[in-house]
Amino acid sequence: MIIDKDAKVFGKINIIDLCIVFAVIGIAAFIFMQFRGGTPVVIAQPETREFTLSFFVEEVENFRVEGISIGDALFDDPRNLFLGNVTYLDVQDAIVWNADRYGNTVRSNKEGHSSLEITTRLSATPFEHGIQIAGNRYGIGHSLTVRVGRSFIFMRISGLSEVSS
Question: 83 with 142, same domain?
Fold first, then answer.
């Protein structure tokens, strides 16, 4: 038998004494692991490069456009991620498609609205289909709500290019 009638393991050591020995060994191992002088773990930082990122929206209210200026910071609003400062701003007539009196689909304008293209410059990590910032991936066609200047606008990424050195 492993434990005899005197509560000794293999007839040699008391079970309570055995538990105390295991506890002391555990505490000693914990203290050793906490205070040993090991080499710190260095996490490799991914290589970042400079990119231009373009955003486009076909139809946005003019009062939103008026709240944006060159140099304003642009953020992915839900994630609060910085996506660069505005380097280019192009405001044109809104792109709206309607049917004419013959039933043909034609491009028209919408009063009080514009189309808007914004370009920013930022540092990011490239990946196969775009860029990555703080673990979030962005590529052409990605739709997101941006916060820029005093405005919030739902836009699509329409261009992405690496800045040549």
Answer: yes
